[in-house]
Amino acid sequence: MPVSGLPPYDTQNIFARILRGEIPAKKVYEDNFAFAFHDINPQAPTHVLVIPKGPYCSFADFSAQATDAEIGGFFRTVGKIAKDLGLEASGYRLLANMGEHSGQEVPHFHVHLFAGRPLGRMIPG
Ligand code: AMP
Description:
CATH architecture of the domain at 14-90 and 109-115: 2-Layer Sandwich
Bound molecules: adenosine monophosphate
Largest sheet: 5 strands, antiparallel
Number of strands: 5
Strand content: 15-25%
Order of helices and strands: HEEEHHEE
CATH superfamily of the domain at 14-90 and 109-115: HIT-like
């Protein structure tokens, strides 16, 4: 369900198509809650996208509409992926864009996982 006032979930968005196997992705991990794959245009040596399997447009949609099990399962999986990739010792950054001012491009909620070099300031400028 979309957040009130925002467009409904677009079943043809690129991440929905990746989840359905219609478009290839470099898979990192998958379980009941999440699918993780390498970003096609990496901004750091490690740049993984983690998406929930359910149809949520954004963090606003996911945090308001997903079940506690989906939310808990998803974020535990994000942590597990970072740990399994060996990123905890040197550290990593999580980022989720929501809506116009964030520059969110793909309308399926996703968390970016960046690592592999010092990542600089959180927000440039
Ligand atoms: P955002 O701006 O937060 O919506 O981020 C969308 C991200 O999806 C960008 O970092 C893109 O490089 C990435 N992206 C777009 N299409 C694909 C794709 N087919 N496979 C992997 N990553 C993609």
